[in-house]
Design a protein that fits this description.
The complex is a heterodimer. Chain A is of the alpha/beta class. Chain A has two domains: about 120 residues, Glutathione S-transferase Yfyf (Class Pi), Chain A, domain 2, CATH 1.20.1050; about 140 residues, Rossmann fold (3-Layer(aba) Sandwich). Helix content of chain A is about 45%, strand content about 10%. In chain A, the strands form two sheets. A four-stranded parallel β-sheet of chain A has the order 2-1-3-4. Chain A has a four-stranded parallel β-sheet with strand order 6-5-7-8, with helices on both faces. In chain A, β5, α8 and β6 form a beta-alpha-beta unit. By secondary structure, chain B is an alpha/beta fold. Chain B has five domains: about 130 residues, 3-Layer(aba) Sandwich (Rossmann fold), CATH 3.40.50; about 180 residues, FAD/NAD(P)-binding domain (3-Layer(bba) Sandwich); about 60 residues, no CATH class; about 160 residues, FAD/NAD(P)-binding domain, CATH 3.50.50.60; about 70 residues, Alpha-Beta Plaits (2-Layer Sandwich), CATH 3.30.70. Helix content of chain B is about 30%, strand content about 25%. Chain B contains 18 helices and 34 strands. Chain B has a five-stranded parallel β-sheet. In chain B, a hairpin with a 5-residue loop joins β32 and β33. In chain B, α1 runs parallel beside α5. The longest helix of chain B is centred in the N-terminal third of the chain and has 19 residues. Chain B is globular, with a radius of gyration of 31 Å. The relative contact order of chain B is 0.10. Classes of the chains: A alpha/beta, B alpha/beta. At the A-B interface, loops of A face β24 of B.
Chain lengths: ~280, ~675
C-alpha cells in the first residue's frame, strides 16, 4: 500500500517541527510517507471565502496528483488542509456537475479512490497498534488534549466522532503513558486567523484555554493543528498579558509526544523550535 | 360498447397550475369508448358531484373516470355520487393527477402529456370494470387500547362510557404514564396527580374496562372490526387475586438501591416494588433483573412476610388472545437521551438534569417532597439556568422538529422555582417562545413579569464545572449579540420529546406507518388526524407527535368517538377488492388444478379448498377457494398461481394488461 503525504504550507514553515516529528515517528515505525510531487496550496482560508470554484479546484488538483501517483491513502496533518481536501472529495463524489466543472478546468480526472487521513486517523491506524513495541520511555505527564475546531470536523465525514467532547487524542496519549485530564475546553476556539490581525482576541480566547488546562493540572497541552499550536505557543505573550500571569506549560504536537516517548532526540522531535521551551523529560 | 364519462378536476390550482386541464379533457373526449369529457374547478364540491350524476343519467354512462387527487382522499366521495345516480360504485375510478403528476412536475408540455396518458390508461381499465358488491363483515364491539397514559385512559373511559367493552394494555406496572410524573400543569398550575389519579381509579373500577398492566402487544392480525390480538402478560411474580397491596413486601425487600424509573433515577426503589404510592393497580411486581432470589437463588424475604401468600417466583409470562374490533394506539413519547449532549455535560455533572427530572423534584410526591434541591448535595440552588430546545429544532441532533411542550413547561419550571425559592434567580435560554394555546401566552408573560424570570434569546454552547459551579456559556442574540456566561447551581435541559424506543417495532407489528422520527403517521394531517392508514386502528396522544395534555385528551376523545362510530354498526361494508378463483362451465368447472400453492403464499390464511360435487354428491374436482372476509386483496396468490386461475376483482390481469397496452399503443 502506498501512503501519500500532503504537508501543506504550515508544515514547511511555522510548524516545521510538526513535519519533522511526524516523519521521524513514521520512519521509526517503518512507514514510508510519499510526498505528493508538485503539490499546491489547499486554498484555506482565503479560497472558500472568495470563490467556491477555487475552493474546490485547488484541493482537487492535489487529489488528482495523488491519484496519478497511485496513492491508496493520503496523510494530511494540518487540520485546515485536511478539511479542505476531505470536503473537496465529498463534493466531487456527491455532485457530478461540480466534478465535471473542475475536471474541465484542471484538465485532470478524478476517480475518488484515495482514503484521506488526518493525523489522528493515521496514528490510530498505523502507529498505535505498534506503540507497545515502539515506546521506549513512557510519556508520564498530565496532559490536556486540545482539539480545536477543525480536527473533529466536518461532521458530514467525521460521523463517529463526538465533536463536542472528542476522545481520540486522549486515548492515544493514555497509551503513551500520559494521564489525559478531564477538562471542558477541548474544542473551544483558539482565535484562529486573528493570530495575525487581532492578536489581543487570540490572547483572550487562547488565554482562557491555557488557563483552564493549567488550573486543572496539565503539564503540557497536546495539539494536532498548526494554527492551534501557533496561538497557544507563539502567542503566549499575548496570552500572558491577558491573564496577567506567566505560564510556562509547553504546547506539543501529538507527534512530538510520540517521538519523545519513542526515545528520539529533541532535534528529531523538533522540540527545540518552540517559543515556550519544552521543559519536559521522559524517563528512560 | 362502453360509454365512459371523464371528469378532469382543477383542484383549485393544485392541478390546473401545471397541467393544461382543458387539453386533457379534449384529448380524453377523443378516446374510443368515451362518451363525455369535461373539466371543472372543484369536482368534489356539490356542483361537481351533481355534474357527474347528471351526466350518468343524461348520457347513460357505463363507467366514470375522475381525474383529480388521490383515491385515498376522494374515491369514496365519487363512488357514492355514482351510486346515487344508479351506477355501480365500482364502475367509477380515480386517476391521481395531483400527487402523481401536477405536484411532482413543473408546468410543461410533458406534464400535460403525462396527465393525458394517466387518464387514457384508466379509461382502458374502466372498460373492463364489472359491477362489484361490498362485502359485509361483523364487528366485534371490543376496543383494544395500547398504552395507559392520559391518552389511553381518556380513550378507554370514553369508549367504555359509550357502552362498549375495552381492554387497556399498559407495559409498566401502573397506568398513569408521564402525566403521573408531572408536578403541576400549565397554564393553570393545577396538580397533575390531583386531576389524573381519580381518572386512573375510574379506569380500574369501570365495569366495561379490563385492565392488563405489565403487558405488551405481541401480535395483531385481522382487519377492521375483526382483529385478533395476542397480548403478553409479563410475569409479575405475584398472584394478583391474593395480593391486597398491603406493602409488607416492599418495606422488607433488602435490595433498596435501584434507581426508580418513576423518579427518573433521582430516587431509589426496591426489587419488589410499586412504582408510586398512587399506582393503579396498587400491587407490586418483582423486577427480576435486580431481585436477589432471581439473581442468586437466595432471599425470598417477600414470600416470608406476605400475609396472603401471594408471591409466585415460578410465575411465567402468559399469552392472552383477544378478539377486538378496533385498536387505539396511545403509547406516548419519551425524552431524548441527554447523553447525546456532551457539550452540556449531562451524565458528567449531577446537577445538569432534564425537564422530566425537574418535574420529579418539583412534585410533592417526588424524592425531595417538592423541594427544589440539587441532586449532588441536596442544597437549594440559588441560580438555575434552563436550556430550551435541547435537541429540538436541531438538525445536527437529528431532531429538526419543535417538541411543542418545552416552552410552556420551562416557563412553568422557572415559575415553580421562583415560588419555592423566593430569592432565587432563574434564567431561560430560548430560541423563540412558542406559546400558542389558550391562556398560554399570558402564562409566559406571568413568568416574565410577575415572577421575574430572566429570558435570554440565544443558545447555550457549553456547560462546564468550575469550583463547584456550573458555568453556562451562551449568547444573547438580542443585546448586540454578546456572549453570556452564567455561574449556575443547576442546569435544566428541555430535552426533545422523541418516539418511544420500541415504536418502530410496534408499528410494524400493527402494520401502521410511521415517520422518519418513528412517530406514528395519521391518515391525513388535517382531515384524518386520529385515523391511521390501516382501517380500524386509531391514534391518540404523543405517539403521533409531541403534544401537551389538553391536545392529547382532545385527540383521545376523538379516537374514542371514531371507535364508537365503528361500534354503532353491527356489520361493516368492506371493499370487494378480493381474490377470486375462476369458475367455468362443465366439464372444466375451473382452470384451478388444486395445487394450493396460493394457500401457502397467502399471508392472511384466506385460502381454503372447495369440493365441486355432482348431483349425486360425488366429488368431481378439488379447487382453491378464497374466503372474502379474510382476503385483503394483496394479490400474492395471483402472482403465485401457475394456471392463472386467480384474479383480483377490480384489478384483474386483463385490466392491468389493458392499462399497459394503452401506454404502449400510443
Amino acid at each position: 500500500m502506498k501512503i501519500g503525504f500532503y504537508p501543506g504550507c504550515s508544515l514547511t514553515g511555522s510548524s516545521r517541527e510538526y513535519n519533522e516529528s511526524l516523519l521521524a515517528v513514521a520512519k521509526v515505525a517503518g512507514i514510508e510517507l510519499c510526498e505528493i510531487n508538485d503539490w499546491n496550496c489547499c486554498g484555506a482560508t482565503a479560497a472558500h471565502n472568495l470563490s467556491r470554484e477555487l475552493s474546490v479546484s485547488l484541493p482537487a488538483r492535489n487529489l488528482a496528483l495523488a491519484e496519478l501517483e497511485e496513492m491508496d491513502e493520503l496523510v494530511v496533518p494540518c487540520a485546515a488542509c485536511y478539511n479542505r481536501l476531505v470536503m473537496t472529495q465529498h463534493e466531487l463524489s456527491e455532485k457530478s456537475e461540480i466534478k465535471a466543472l473542475i475536471e474541465g478546468k484542471l484538465h485532470m480526472t478524478f476517480k475518488n479512490t484515495i482514503r484521506i487521513l488526518n493525523v489522528l486517523q493515521f496514528l490510530e491506524k498505523h502507529i498505535v497498534p505498534h506503540l507497545d513495541e515502539l515506546v521506549k520511555s513512557p510519556f508520564k505527564h498530565d496532559v490536556a488534549c486540545y482539539y480545536g475546531c477543525l480536527l473533529v470536523r466536518p461532521n458530514q465525514i467525521m460521523k463517529d466522532v463526538r465533536f463536542e467532547d472528542p476522545m481520540t487524542m486522549d486515548v492515544i496519549m493514555q497509551k503513551l503513558g500520559a494521564r489525559a485530564i478531564d477538562w471542558p475546553f477541548k474544542t473551544e476556539c483558539c482565535g484562529a486567523g486573528f493570530s495575525v490581525s487581532k492578536t489581543e482576541i487570540v490572547g483572550e480566547l487562547s488565554g482562557k484555554i491555557v488557563r483552564n488546562a493549567v488550573d486543572r493540572g496539565a503539564k503540557a497541552i497536546i495539539v494536532a493543528c498548526p494554527m492551534c499550536h501557533s496561538n497557544l505557543d507563539m502567542r503566549r505573550p499575548a496570552i500572558e498579558s491577558y491573564l496577567h500571569r506567566k505560564i510556562d506549560v509547553p504546547v506539543l504536537y501529538i507527534t512530538q509526544a510520540i517521538a519523545m516517548a519513542m526515545g528520539l532526540s529533541p532535534q528529531q522531535a523538533g522540540t527545540q523550535r518552540h517559543f515556550v521551551p519544552v521543559n519536559l523529560t521522559v524517563n528512560r | 360498447m362502453s360509454k365512459i364519462g371523464v371528469f378532469i378536476c382543477h383542484c383549485g390550482e393544485n392541478i390546473s397550475a401545471t397541467v393544461d386541464v382543458v387539453r386533457v379533457a379534449e384529448a380524453a373526449g377523443k378516446l374510443e369508448g368515451v362518451e363525455f369529457s369535461t373539466d371543472y374547478k372543484y369536482m368534489c364540491s356539490d356542483p361537481g358531484q351533481t355534474l357527474i350524476k347528471q351526466m350518468i343519467k343524461e348520457k347513460g354512462l357505463t363507467g366514470v373516470v375522475v381525474a383529480a387527487c388521490s383515491p385515498r382522499m376522494h374515491e369514496p366521495t365519487f363512488r357514492k355520487a355514482c351510486s346515487s345516480a344508479g351506477l355501480n360504485p365500482y364502475m367509477c375510478e380515480m386517476s391521481n393527477l395531483r400527487e402523481h403528476c401536477s405536484w411532482v412536475h413543473d408546468k410543461s408540455e410533458a406534464t400535460t402529456q403525462k396527465a393525458i396518458d394517466l387518464v387514457r390508461t384508466l379509461v382502458e381499465k374502466v372498460k373492463y370494470d364489472k359491477p362489484l358488491y361490498s362485502i359485509k363483515v361483523p364487528v366485534t364491539k371490543t376496543a383494544l387500547i395500547i398504552g395507559g397514559g392520559i391518552a389511553g385512559i381518556q380513550a378507554s373511559l370514553d369508549i367504555a362510557n359509550a357502552g362498549h367493552q375495552v381492554v387497556l394494555v399498559e407495559k409498566d406496572p401502573s397506568i398513569g404514564g408521564h402525566m403521573s410524573q408531572l408536578s403541576e400543569t400549565f397554564p393553570t398550575l393545577d396538580c397533575s396527580q390531583c386531576i389524573l389519579t381519580p381518572r386512573m381509579v375510574e379506569v380500574a373500577q369501570h365495569p366495561n374496562i379490563k385492565l392488563l398492566t405489565y403487558a405488551e402487544l405481541e401480535k395483531l392480525e385481522g382487519f377492521i372490526g375483526n382483529f385478533k390480538a395476542t397480548i403478553r402478560k409479563k410475569s409479575k411474580s405475584i398472584d394478583e387475586d391474593l395480593c391486597t397491596g398491603c406493602g409488607h413486601c416492599t418495606t422488607k425487600c433488602p435490595t433498596k438501591k435501584i434507581p426508580s424509573e418513576f423518579n427518573t433515577g433521582l430516587g431509589k426503589r426496591t426489587a419488589i416494588y410499586v412504582p408510586f404510592p398512587q399506582a393503579v393497580p396498587n400491587k407490586p411486581v418483582i423486577d427480576k433483573e435486580n431481585c436477589l432470589y432471581y439473581k442468586n437463588g437466595k432471599c425470598k424475604i417477600c414470600e416470608k412476610v406476605c400475609p396472603t401468600g401471594a408471591i409466585r417466583f415460578d410465575q411465567e409470562d402468559e399469552l392472552v388472545e383477544l378478539e377486538v374490533g378496533a385498536v387505539v394506539v396511545a403509547t406516548g413519547f419519551d425524552v431524548m437521551e441527554p447523553s447525546e449532549f456532551s457539550e452540556y455535560g449531562y451524565g458528567k455533572y449531577k446537577d445538569v438534569i432534564t425537564g422530566l427530572q425537574f418535574e420529579r423534584l418539583a412534585s410533592a410526591s417526588g424524592p425531595t417532597l417538592g423541594g427544589i434541591r440539587r441532586p449532588s448535595d441536596g442544597q437549594i440552588p440559588q441560580k438555575i439556568v434552563f436550556v430550551a430546545c435541547a435537541g429540538s429544532r436541531d438538525p445536527s441532533k437529528g431532531k429538526p422538529y419543535c417538541s411543542k411542550i418545552c416552552c410552556m413547561y420551562t416557563a412553568k419550571h422557572a415559575m415553580l422555582y421562583q415560588h419555592k425559592v423566593h430569592h432565587g434567580e432563574s434564567t431561560i435560554f430560548y430560541m423563540d417562545i412558542r406559546a400558542g394555546g389558550k391562556n398560554y401566552e399570558e402564562f409566559v408573560r406571568r413568568a416574565i413579569v410577575e415572577d421575574e424570570v430572566k429570558y435570554i434569546r440565544g443558545r447555550v454552547s457549553k456547560v462546564y464545572e468550575e469550583n463547584g459551579k456550573l458555568i453556562v456559556k451562551g449568547v444573547d442574540t438580542l443585546l448586540n449579540a454578546k456572549p453570556v456566561e452564567i455561574e449556575a447551581d443547576m442546569v435544566v435541559l428541555a430535552t426533545a420529546a422523541v418516539a418511544n424506543s420500541g415504536a418502530e417495532e410496534l408499528a410494524q407489528k400493527m402494520h401502521i406507518s410511521y415517520d422518519a422520527y418513528n412517530f406514528f403517521s395519521e391518515a391525513h394531517p388535517k382531515l384524518k388526524p386520529v385515523e391511521t392508514n390501516t382501517a380500524g386502528i386509531f391514534l391518540a396522544g404523543a405517539c403521533q407527535a409531541p403534544k401537551d395534555i389538553p391536545e392529547t385528551v382532545s385527540q383521545a376523545s376523538g379516537a374514542a368517538a371514531k371507535v364508537a362510530i365503528l361500534f354503532s354498526q353491527d356489520e361493516l361494508s368492506r371493499e370487494p377488492v378480493v381474490a377470486v378463483v375462476n369458475r367455468s362451465a362443465p366439464p372444466l368447472y375451473s382452470t384451478c388444478v388444486g395445487c394450493f400453492m396460493c394457500a401457502t403464499a397467502c399471508p392472511y390464511q384466506a385460502i381454503g379448498e372447495e369440493l365441486i360435487k355432482n348431483r349425486k354428491g360425488e366429488v368431481i374436482k378439488r379447487v382453491a377457494k378464497v374466503n372474502p372476509g379474510l382476503c385483503q386483496g394483496c394479490g400474492t396468490c395471483v402472482a403465485f398461481c401457475r394456471s392463472k386461475s386467480i384474479d383480483i376483482d377490480g384489478y384483474s390481469n386483463e385490466q392491468m394488461y389493458s392499462e399497459v397496452m394503452a401506454l404502449l399503443n400510443d
